[in-house]
Amino acid sequence: MSERETIAKARRIVVKAGSSSLTTPAGTIDADRIDALVDVLAARLDEGTEVVFVSSGAIAAGLGPLGLTRRPPDLATQQAAASVGQGLLFARYTSSFARHGRTVGQVLLTADDMMRRSHHRNAQRTLAQLLALGVLPIVNENDTVATDEIRFGDNDRLAALVAHLIRADALVLLSDVDALYTGDPRRPGARRVADVRGPSDLAGIELGGSGRVGTGGMVTKVEAARIAGIPVVLTNAASAARALAGAPVGTLFHPAGGRRLSTRHLWLAHATTGAGRILLDAGAVEAVARRGKSLLPAGVTGVEGDFAAGDPVDLCGADGAVVARGLVNYDASEIPDLMGRSTRWLARELGPEYEREIIHRDDLVVLAEAEKDVR
């Protein structure tokens, strides 16, 4: 079965729509656009497919009521706009899906929810139960409480992580452009890229930046496709029905196959930035990067930055290259006293609470392996 056929016959699918697909240029909700997209999703539901809809637009929907003409640069005003806009956006979805006799449920997530084991499992259970009850979950980032340090930054990445969370068969990303192009599609000579099978198909392509009301851009969509590990179609909202039917529209990102990382490890690899750096000797690099071991104090040669226990940090070899990222068990200020010591010695000299890893292997992702697995 081809990847296009996989999308047409998918039992469970994630569809993501960006802000520009849902709002007017003035930042208000575009009821006609939303109704048209809801009609497409409802038709797919009628075919027996389970659908999770990841919707941007909360901040954009709040701009008009607050008298703002552009997305505000500061986080506090963005959160205020999201607080106003999220209710308006979800109310509109509720009434639009009600035309088809469909019930929707709101699920607001932060990147922190993907990181913390209990939050991750709760989100997974909630989405599974909503689908079991015949409810269409509408997911958005919880912009009103997310901070710069724990934000997804765009809903493309969130959609890819949700696809992993529910083990979806396919992902459709709806944008304000109908496909990936070799350059700005408004300029002569730009060609549509019909298929992406690997990094070589992206060579020389100008991915561009973010949009006027959104936070993403083509680069985040390409990144989301790499994370997803399943067939991904990128197109515009007007082509949503054809994309879901398996028609050759937009750009199809083919999965490379191989082992799928857990959602938490995907979050670590692709949705976080190291709050600091821990330097490793050659033995520790070998143990962590090639043998899947936890990072022990004995293999640490240095620490850089100011981070707290639980923060993501980068693990670097002697040449400074980042080999892995993980959630650290100690504050940065504690690590110098632990470096080069065995956990047994630390437990004897400092107490049993120090008989633990710097980073446990369950909270660590090898970035070279992550790159290989999601391509």
Automatic annotation (TrEMBL):
Principal subcellular localization: cytoplasm
Record: residues binding ATP: K16, S175, D176, T215, G216, G217, M218, V219, T220, K221
Enzyme class, UniProt record, top EC level: transferase
Reaction(s) the record says it catalyses: L-glutamate + ATP = L-glutamyl 5-phosphate + ADP
CDD domains: AAK_G5K_ProB, PUA_G5K
Binding residue positions for substrate: S56, D143, N155
Localization, UniProt: Cytoplasm
Entries under InterPro entries matching the protein: AceGlu_kinase-like_sf, Asp/Glu/Uridylate_kinase, G5K_ProB, Glu/AcGlu_kinase, Glu_5kinase, Glu_5kinase/COase_Synthase, Glutamate_5-kinase_CS, PUA
PUA domain segment(s): 276-355
Enzyme Commission numbers on file: 2.7.2.11
Cited Gene3D superfamilies: Acetylglutamate kinase-like (3.40.1160.10), PUA domain (2.30.130.10)
Annotated family: Belongs to the glutamate 5-kinase family.
Task of the protein: Catalyzes the transfer of a phosphate group to glutamate to form L-glutamate 5-phosphate.
Protein name: Glutamate 5-kinase
Organism: Actinomadura graeca
